[in-house]
Amino acid sequence: MTTFPLLAVLLPFIAASAALLLSRWPHHRTTTTAPRDPSPGRSASGLSTPGGSAPDRSAPSPPTPAEPTPAEYPPAVPAAVPGPTKPTSRPHQTVKEIKAHPTAEAANQRANTRAAWLAILPTAAAALVTIWLAWGPGFAFLSDGTSTSPPTGQTYGTIVTGGIPISLTLQADNLSSILGVLVTLVALAVQIYSVGYLKDDPRYPSYSAFISLFTSAMLLVVYAGDLLVLYVGWEIMGLCSYLLIGHWWEDRANSRAAIKAFLVTRLGDVGFLFGIFVLGTAAGSFRISEVLAKVPEMSTATLVTATMLLLAGVAGKSAQVPLHTWLPDAMAGPTPISALIHAATMVAAGIFIVARLFPAFQHAPPTLDVLAVVAALGMLGAALAALAQDDLKRVLAYSTVSQLAYMAGGLAANSDTAAIFHLLTHGAFKALLFLCAGAVIHHVGSNLMTQMGGLRRELPVTFVTMTIGFAALMGIPPASGFFSKDGVLLAMDDALSSSVLTDAAAFLLYGCALATVAVTGAYAARAWLRTFFGETRAVALPEPEPGTAHVVDVREAPRTMLVPIVLLAVPALLLGFAGEPHLDLGVAAISVVLALLGAGVVYAFWRSDPIADPARLLGPLRGPCERAFYVDGLYAALFVRPVLALARLVVRTDDVVVDGAVRGSGRSARGLSGVLRLAQNGNVQLYVSGVLAGVLLIAVGAVVFT
Amino acid sequence: MMGGWLPITLLAVPLLGALLLLLAPHALRPILRTYGLVVSGIALAPAVLLVVTFDYGRAAAPQFEVDVPWIPGLGLRFHLGVDGISLPLVALTALLTFLCFVYLCWGRTRDSGPFMSDRPRALVFTLLVLEVGMIGTFLALDLLLFFVFFEIVLIPMYFLIGIWGGEGRRGAAVKFILYTLLGSVVMLLGLLIVWAQAGTLDIEALTAAHGSGMSRSVQILAFVAIGIGLAVKTPMWPLHTWLPDAHTEAPTVGSVLLAGVLLKMGTYGFARIAIPVLPEGAAAVAPWLGAFAVVGIVYGALACLAQRDLKRMIAYSSVGHMGFVLLGFATLTPVGTNGALFANVAHGLITGLLFFLAGAIKERHHTADMPSLGGGLLARVPRLGSVLTFAAIASLGLPGLAGFWGEMLALLGAFQPANGLPRGLFLTYMVIGGLGALLTAAYFLVMLSRVTHGRPHDTTPQPLPGTPAGTPRPDPIHATPDERPTAPAASSGRLPATITLDPSTGPPDPRQEDITRHELLAWTPLVVLTVLFGLWPGLLLSLTTPAVQVLLGAVS
């Protein structure tokens, strides 16, 4: 048992390494045949590398005008790609190419299949391990925080640093064991789903490897017993996020979104690292248990500094105001990634770390106040922004920001159990929502809700499951979100009367939370109505460029996509009953009424004109909401552009001033030597005159001074 | 004294190899490529043996010592030895030189580049002499011996840049040698001050004395003088301007050795001589050193952000990374010094790899100008693009790879500097350094975006309007991200004809060649070590920690 946390971390890690190393393996197959043909052969083999990550190679045969019909191979239909037979139908190709292509394609298929197994099996094994770990404590963390059983795990050595050592401890306590289960199960669902979603993507092997690496890093965060070990996992998640958001890097916009995600989170992480320094130095150890044991002895100033700095990292990772701007752009990645990282796991890490170090935060009341204000602003602002988005994934992205703010608010209201419970249910229902959105997008070929509509007839399974997801998001009983949101609201209600928060912060938090419930109902209803009801708006999508879209001509998504969706729908619906629901009827009634009110208003607007966007109810606010209150533009003007201008200034300064001084000294030395050279002109008369003049000077000097 | 033959062998093998080239030029001509490889391989063997037989229990004390009189009249001794600080650097030097020969041995066979085909004998000779100088610098335990090796390195590097370099090689080489020689002269003055005051040149004895016998003002003077010499080599802002030119013009192996080893000689000098021998001087100058270091971090990062040339960008990134190393030293704490030494080795591995990659890209495209490269490297040469991504991510200091630990420990050292140093000032340095790390991430990611991402077809050199403005900005993106995977067939449909498989469309573009075997051979050890040290930093830290505690004995 004690090695299980390590096992859970290592399994996906090894899978990721293996998949990355093997992803280009079939390459060798084709190169071996290459040297027969001198130079073109080499390039051909270099080009047809199947497992390579390039889109141009190995892709299922670029359709040329001479191709029969594109319909012959619908890309996403499972087992419908008749690999080896296809290229023979290309009359214009040379014999060599025909030989090269079936191998390339078959190898590509093989690589993808192998990568799928390499991804799914270790993740499943890790899931089993985490479930085993969580079996004993069960939901002990949620039911009551008092029964603290000793954590399972061990220390695998210490790294000397010359100062405070780093101990490689991996352990599972009540909190981390339930989160480990969430992480691995969602990761497993996403891995299975991705098999169908990215079936023909030649970069699927690296993609699935990055998910495995991500899973491993998140588990490292969850199980780490040392703050710096935790930080390692914390940053690797950022990297995986970067790599996966930029999965379709052909489009520079995706690349920019990936950069933005990495940099914004890393900005927070700088603060986070310094927070670790403060805590670790004050406690004399980076071990979480020892840090928490020393918390009562630390001065409030130390704790406030440390927690404020940690909060920067939390805001970055969990996409809280003011570092939330990366998350909506992160939707540039494939949809399963949005489900995995940007809904269920990575963004949850920020909330997790606050819960993990909760005693430190509890002893720093100013930090909790700040957290409350940040959460209050974030939840309402993001919900309003979600109401105005046209892109289905961006709706969900802003909804994630808003829901994470709920958890942050729960933490600020001094209830880590309520926050973690909401984190769990949110992990389930938001992953479900994203995967459903992926199925919808997969079907429609567009993210935009203006192009959706009436899909409930075409996608019955997705409709039902996504309805469950939206119900959970709105907090409609009996879906899981109802119970967890109720817990958070209850905690905020209690905070009004207790002295954890200052009165103003508590009022602001509770007020915003209630308002957000209504807005959440509104935007969830809007997305639901515009996606599944009304007329089918996409009359006939223009025939997509061959191979560009994942348009399928079957009614539902492939089975690999549907199974995870259906399986996720179960916890999204029922998880609420797991954690000993402690209901407060008054709060529950208010929240349900508010949610229904929001939904009702949207329904009324939608009913009056099903074609128009119900977002018009925002009136003049709609513009600002759609642009998320212009925060992006503000940051660009405040930070990005000045930094770039400064960079150009530095380059110019470096050339003109710093190097200019160097060159100038070189030039002046040469100039000086030029002057001296005048004397060395080879004219003997001049030399003799010089000597005589010198002698004269010396003589005069001798006479005068002696 | 046991095992003293190992350091001697380390120096003797490349030296004899070089001499043999002079003595028997004609016999060796046909096997020149293999010859360099074999000699550097034989030189690598004692380095490996050194690593294997090193007594890790006493990493603090020099081992494998050789101590014989050299110039008795002056009291100079030929004193060599290895301890926990120099061992990684010696091994790194031997390894990098060997990898350079691996790269040269099989590379360029079909390309009539100006490299191995142009005066190959001289090239092998130059590199072997360079290796002697570099290894000697790290082995020397006598001040003047250190200085001699330190200077020996300059000459081959000058020729390496001046003969086999790019278009502006002459200017770059002259600037390199004049600048570093000027620094060396100042350093020599400092060394002579130490000699005059302490009466010995033996580094071991001087370290043990902890600066006793030298007044504070003398120590400060000597530290500044030695420090300037080392800072030129490191390079420390604002004495860095020789570096970008040298790197840009140097051939690939020159850049690799320059970044991988030569810069380390400067920082090694701080750890070996300046700080332990002159502790009071170090304590007095440390705040200044830290200030220059953090300015270098931010300045280097900003300069990188607006660079067009890939090699120049990596060169400026060295300024930033060396800033972290200097910051670590400036804290005068075991943590910071450990971090500095770790960052030193990590930088050697990672930046060495980066320069190999930049060289490979330049070789394929005949330019390292990023706008002209046009992006899409991951599509054209996916393996090369992947390794470049790896190296860039390692270099930006991702935890789990070697680049992180050094920088983290340097910052941790700055969080709590040694007693007597102004804490508030160092806290400021820490914050600035942290922001510098963020900027480091920014320019590497922007570089990756420019070079590896995008569609491969925009390769035509397009001078972007107002070139620095061509830097892709991490702009807010309001456009709907296109969910549809355009990857598989679409881009291939749009590729230029030369990339299709049809041989009839003309001669294949040589640029399309992905990583070749010799490149893979040369790069794999660097990648493996980067991952290894990243996942298990204790490997290096357990080696340096005892030695560092001895070095800082007087300071802390």
From TrEMBL, chain A:
Coiled coil (residue ranges): none
Membrane topology category: Multi-pass membrane protein
InterPro entries noted in UniProt: NADHpl_OxRdtase_5_subgr, ND/Mrp_TM, NU5C-like, Proton_antipo_N
A molecular function GO annotation: NADH dehydrogenase activity
Comp. bias regions, Pro residues: 60-77
Gene Ontology terms: cellular component: endomembrane system; membrane
Region named Disordered: 30-95
Domain NADH-Ubiquinone oxidoreductase (complex I) chain 5 N-terminal residue range list: 161-207
Biased composition (Low complexity): 78-88
Cellular location(s): Endomembrane system; Membrane
Superkingdom assignment: Bacteria
Keyword terms, alphabetized: Membrane, Transmembrane, Transmembrane helix
Entry's transmembrane regions: 6-23, 115-135, 175-195, 207-225, 231-249, 261-286, 298-316, 337-358, 370-388, 395-413, 419-441, 461-484, 504-525, 561-579, 585-606, 686-705
Domain NADH:quinone oxidoreductase/Mrp antiporter transmembrane: 224-492
GO term, biological process aspect, one: ATP synthesis coupled electron transport
NCBIfam families linked to this entry: NDH_I_L
Name under which the protein is recorded: NADH-quinone oxidoreductase subunit L
Species this chain originates from: Nonomuraea jiangxiensis
Automatic annotation (TrEMBL), chain B:
Protein's UniProt name: NADH-quinone oxidoreductase subunit M
Biased composition (Pro residues): 462-474
Domain (NADH:quinone oxidoreductase/Mrp antiporter transmembrane): residue spans on this chain: 140-416
Pfam family, one: Proton_antipo_M
Organism: Nonomuraea jiangxiensis
Keywords linked to the UniProt accession: Membrane, Transmembrane, Transmembrane helix
Domain of life assignment: Bacteria
Keyword Transmembrane helix: yes
Region entry Disordered, spans: 456-513
InterPro entries per UniProt: NADH_Q_OxRdtase_chainM/4, NADH_UbQ_OxRdtase, ND/Mrp_TM
Transmembrane segments: 6-23, 35-54, 85-106, 122-140, 146-164, 176-196, 216-232, 253-275, 281-302, 314-335, 341-361, 381-406, 426-446, 520-539
Family: Belongs to the complex I subunit 4 family.
Mode of membrane association: Multi-pass membrane protein
GO terms for cellular component: endomembrane system; membrane
Record GO biological process: ATP synthesis coupled electron transport; electron transport coupled proton transport
Location in or out of the cell: Endomembrane system; Membrane
Single GO MF descriptor: NADH dehydrogenase (ubiquinone) activity
